[in-house]
Design goal:
By secondary structure, this protein is α+β, with helices and mostly antiparallel strands. The chain is 20% helix and 22% strand. It has one domain (4-104): 2-Layer Sandwich (HIT family, subunit A), CATH 3.30.428.10. The chain is globular.
């Protein structure tokens, strides 16, 4: 069964695409938790960060570098932003497809959750 993100990659479900290349896709979150809330995910399914393998190192590096580039493109670099990766149910994961939340446009409190 395809994850929600796989269906978006396949264009079976519409999404507001912010960035795309051969390895990753970034979309606006449909339930934003900040004025800017984008989700960036690899096109290759890695269920969660705890299941990433050594062979995924290049893709994971690309994912994080693109998160920074997307945040900059969205005008978040100067004021700052938060990157969030949830892992497992207690970590807040709801879709078993590794993804990075890019949150910005307001002050982020600490601790989260």
């Amino acid at each position: 069964m395809k994850t929600l993100f796989e269906k978006i990659i396949a264009r079976e479900i519409p999404a507001d695409v912010v960035y795309e290349d051969g390895l990753v896709l970034a979309i606006r979150d449909i339930k934003p938790q900040a004025p800017t809330h984008v989700i960036l995910f690899p096109k290759t399914v890695i269920p969660r960060i705890a299941e990433a393998k050594n062979d995924d190192q290049g893709l994971l590096g690309h994912l994080l570098l693109k998160a920074g580039e997307v945040a900059d493109k969205l005008g978040l670099k100067a004021g700052g932003y938060r990157l969030v990766i949830n892992n497992g149910p207690n970590g807040g994961e709801t879709i078993p497809h590794l993804h990075v939340h890019i949150l910005g446009g307001r002050h982020m409190a600490w601790p989260p959750g």
